[in-house]
């Protein structure tokens, strides 16, 4: 699904002047709130943000002072599949 959000020009300009992409900032805000509220799992948050690994998501959450929910068996299985895919693509070594 594609979603369009209108941001006032002055806000977009301020974000851009600070070196932030307004669209990415809005997406990250949705991801942060979704994860924080429990509406999104770690896996869903990772996919929304375009991160390939849980490590990338953990770094993002740490930067934003968001402490992790419990790591579920589903999260473990998702990470296992990601590691297998990255190995098969030759992007990491076991």
What's this, in brief?
It contains five helices and no strands. The protein has helices spanning 9-17, 22-37, 42-49, 54-63, 73-88.
Helix content: 55-70%
The general outline is: globular
Find the structural class using helix and strand composition: mainly alpha
Radius of gyration, rounded?
16 Å
Mean pLDDT level: 89
Biggest β-sheet description: none
In terms of DSSP E residues, the strand content is under 5%
The count of β-strands is: 0
Distance between the termini: 35 Å
The arrangement of helices and strands along the chain is HHHHH
User: Can you tell me the residue ranges where pLDDT is under 50 for at least 5 consecutive residues?
Assistant: none
Number of helices: 5
Give descriptors for this structure:
single chain, 94 residues, mainly alpha, 63% helix
Describe this structure in words.
The longest helix has 16 residues, at 22-37. This protein has 94 residues and is mainly alpha-helical. It has helices at 9-17, 22-37, 42-49, 54-63, 73-88. The mean pLDDT is 89. The protein is built from five helices and no strands. The chain is globular and about 50 Å long.
């Amino acid at each position: 699904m594609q979603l369009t959000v209108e941001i006032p020009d002055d806000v977009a300009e301020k974000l851009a002047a600070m070196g932030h992409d307004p669209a990415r900032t809005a997406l990250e805000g949705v991801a942060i709130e979704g994860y924080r509220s429990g509406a999104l799992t770690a896996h869903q948050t990772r996919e929304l943000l375009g991160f390939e690994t849980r490590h990338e998501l953990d770094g993002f959450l740490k930067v934003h002072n968001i402490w992790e929910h419990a790591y579920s068996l589903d999260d473990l299985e998702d990470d296992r599949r990601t590691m297998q895919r990255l190995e098969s693509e030759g992007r990491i070594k076991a």
